[in-house]
Amino acid sequence: MDMNEIKEIFFQECEEQLAELESGLLKLNDGDRDPETVNAVFRAVHSIKGGAGAFGLDDLVSFAHVFETTLDCVRSNKLEPSQDVLKVMLKSADVLADLVTAARDGGGVDEGRSRGLVKELEALARGELPSGGASDAPKPQAKPAPAPAAVAPTAAPAPTDDSGFQPIPFTFDEFGDEEATIAPSSFEVIFKPRRELYSKGNEAALLLRDLSRVGEMSINCDIDSLPLFEKMDPEAAYFSWTINVKTTKSEQDIRSVFEFAEWDCDLDVRLAESTDEDLPMIPVPFDLDFLNDDSAEDESAVENHSSEQAAAVAAAETASNVSKLAAAAARVEKKESQSAAAAAAAAASANAANAAAGAGQTIRVDLDRVDRLINLVGELVINQAMLSQSVIENDTTGTSSINMGLEELQQLTREIQDSVMAIRAQPVKPVFQRMSRIVREVADMVGKSIRLITEGENTEVDKTVIDKLAEPLTHMIRNAVDHGIETPEKREAAGKNPEGTVKLTAKHRSGRILIELQDDGAGINRERVRQKAIDNDLIPADANLTDEEIDNLIFMPGFSTADKISDISGRGVGMDVVKRSIQALGGRISISSRPGQGSTFTMSLPLTLAVLDGMVVTVAGQTLVVPLTAIVETLQPEAASIHSFGANQRLISIRNSFCPLVDVGRILNFRSMQANPVEGVALLVESEGGGQRALMVDAIQGQRQVVIKSLEANYTHVPGIAAATILGDGRVALILDVDAVVAASRGQSLRGDGALKSDMSLAATG
Amino acid sequence: MAVNNKSAETLKLAKVLDLNEASNLHGTLISLRGKDVAIDASGVERVGVQCVQVLLAAANAWERDSKSLVIDKVSDAFRKTMQLIGINIDHLLAKEIRQ
């Protein structure tokens, strides 16, 4: 594995850590005071800092360090995580994310912003309130100057490395630590490394060396848990230490020696009350410079770092480690049952084992590989369908064993298909998390106070859908914050909580994912929307529209109610773009609004873009697939309900309302004469404009799940056709682009010249 | 402990006794089981705890087997690391190098 791959893994892990960081901070913001949440947040920043140090990303390291220092104050209960504090922290998380992105993709970050935040964070660490005098804070000592030493290619997980950053000792002095007294005090340190400490490239001996530098130290090594030689695992951790340190420094200074190892060992540091312990202590008085073989250290550190990374990838390896680890943990447990701290320590080991087991259950796989697999499974499904069809055609005797085998095969392939699709399914969490940043930033910009509540973040949907969801969702969130929610003053005047709420929810509904964006703002100002639509010539001045129709006007192209064009939204490209992107995903969007109470946008999206539930129909001898999601109902037209309209338009009356009848065969140029509606079937579809059309086809063959094959990738784009699929009989069937066909029926041509290439019908016969 | 350097197998320890070396060392010592062993730690520059674990477990095993396992040469780094991590190896050291 070369350095770039390791770096790539680091950045992937950063993404996860950043997500963890943000969700943790948001939890704290909601009043969660669980120490584990604070720890998780701290750990996330810490890991980013550690990895960044390994790659010499100094900007990232120095910012993460300041951030971490402040978080540590929260962790040690010196700083109350109030709303104001968390506001700074959330902003810092955003800057950290920017720095990570900048480190990965190049480019810069807003230096002023990050410098400002560094000052605010440092002020917080000193116990100052966020607003008070943060700007004129003295030049921080806490900021680890990007000294030349920090550039040295050193692996961060090696905690003892002198050439790396070692900023902690002077950082904590600033806080006026109560424990820092002039008179030397005696600390008792109990240090029990766990196996991971070694496997991550840390070395207990080097930690002890660093500890010996803190003060006068004497040590006792507990070797009782050493098993029999033939039964021992050479890479396990058996030794543990009780160390007495006499020092003028604080407990924090001692703990900071173990900074990088503290998750992988049991560590107990406390003021020694009395030295009545009769453990034979060996004094460690001498000069330990001999251990400073930096070059060798660096080399092995890098090596170990890479092996650590490799371990992260190799799930199998991890799995095997877990069992050994569990065994080691069990030994630790047995050994410690005498002491009071034992229970906690054992629980910690057990937790570590659980955590390791949990971590062992995921692997990172290149998306291309998954896609190739999905593609192959698609082929398999098609092949299986073809096979069963030809068996049915050729074997009329119906040998039951063959038929049964085929049925089983069919079930298997369906199951394989479902499982493979599940691989691509991802929770919507990352997208939702990005939204919380947007809410924060936009709310800041427009001076509103807004809270984003998310629900159902773990709802899973195909990765492509997730990727394409971010943009429309961003648009909508911005709109909701900018236009939807009123200013705090107006809200108060209306008797509402001055803090607005935007709620983002995701849930599964009948094989689709439903995403709702709800704000508790003023709702849609229908008068203004209507006036605007009239001004923009979107509707006639005397149009009689229902409330719902007025609400839906905001999805019209070129519609914007913002009085002034702002940076945030209101360039008139908003909601129609959103609607188009959602429709491109095979989804639908609708809005409902209640004046004074807010608006709700509801998006319904398919769970995957690889398969589609379609209705297989025949049009002029061709087989077409109409996406089921577009179809509202199907009906058999009666002669009495068909009405002519104009030269060659026809309407169908359905339950006392008229709906244009669209001859699909005519639009697609499958035939030159209009078909007789009474002989065909009408599919009532809902299209882009929200209006309904009756698509006329000759016959319905059935309903089927089909594997989508891109026409663009395999042939070329065909107007009126969204994609293709291969049916069980091996024939290619085209998937109808309902919106394009409906648009064509309005008189807009499918293509500039109005005519379709005749070879399209050839393609359809496959 | 009876020392018979003449018939003892000599095991020269690697320069760097780190995590990777622990398994090697364990394997080498298993293959020497049942023989008197003299360990040469004179070339050791860096000692990790896991190799010390292996050495101490081996010392216990050899003692049970009534075979001799002595460390007859030590480097400064080896000796000092042992002291640092609180391991007393005096009983393993050959008489002539005891301090």
TrEMBL record, chain A:
<dbReference type="Pfam" id="PF01627">
    <property type="entry name" value="Hpt"/>
</dbReference>
<feature type="domain" description="CheW-like">
    <location>
        <begin position="611"/>
        <end position="747"/>
    </location>
</feature>
<dbReference type="InterPro" id="IPR036641">
    <property type="entry name" value="HPT_dom_sf"/>
</dbReference>
<dbReference type="InterPro" id="IPR036061">
    <property type="entry name" value="CheW-like_dom_sf"/>
</dbReference>
<keyword id="KW-0418">Kinase</keyword>
<dbReference type="Pfam" id="PF02895">
    <property type="entry name" value="H-kinase_dim"/>
</dbReference>
<dbReference type="InterPro" id="IPR004105">
    <property type="entry name" value="CheA-like_dim"/>
</dbReference>
<keyword id="KW-0808">Transferase</keyword>
<keyword id="KW-0902">Two-component regulatory system</keyword>
<keyword id="KW-0547">Nucleotide-binding</keyword>
<dbReference type="InterPro" id="IPR008207">
    <property type="entry name" value="Sig_transdc_His_kin_Hpt_dom"/>
</dbReference>
<dbReference type="InterPro" id="IPR037006">
    <property type="entry name" value="CheA-like_homodim_sf"/>
</dbReference>
<dbReference type="GO" id="GO:0004673">
    <property type="term" value="F:protein histidine kinase activity"/>
</dbReference>
<feature type="domain" description="Histidine kinase">
    <location>
        <begin position="407"/>
        <end position="609"/>
    </location>
</feature>
<dbReference type="InterPro" id="IPR002545">
    <property type="entry name" value="CheW-lke_dom"/>
</dbReference>
<feature type="region of interest" description="Disordered">
    <location>
        <begin position="128"/>
        <end position="168"/>
    </location>
</feature>
<dbReference type="InterPro" id="IPR004358">
    <property type="entry name" value="Sig_transdc_His_kin-like_C"/>
</dbReference>
<protein>
    <recommendedName>
        <fullName>Chemotaxis protein CheA</fullName>
        <ecNumber>2.7.13.3</ecNumber>
    </recommendedName>
</protein>
<dbReference type="InterPro" id="IPR003594">
    <property type="entry name" value="HATPase_dom"/>
</dbReference>
<dbReference type="Pfam" id="PF01584">
    <property type="entry name" value="CheW"/>
</dbReference>
<feature type="modified residue" description="Phosphohistidine">
    <location>
        <position position="46"/>
    </location>
</feature>
<dbReference type="InterPro" id="IPR005467">
    <property type="entry name" value="His_kinase_dom"/>
</dbReference>
TrEMBL record, chain B:
<dbReference type="InterPro" id="IPR036513">
    <property type="entry name" value="STAS_dom_sf"/>
</dbReference>
<dbReference type="Pfam" id="PF13466">
    <property type="entry name" value="STAS_2"/>
</dbReference>
<dbReference type="InterPro" id="IPR058548">
    <property type="entry name" value="MlaB-like_STAS"/>
</dbReference>
<feature type="domain" description="MlaB-like STAS">
    <location>
        <begin position="11"/>
        <end position="87"/>
    </location>
</feature>
<protein>
    <submittedName>
        <fullName>STAS domain-containing protein</fullName>
    </submittedName>
</protein>
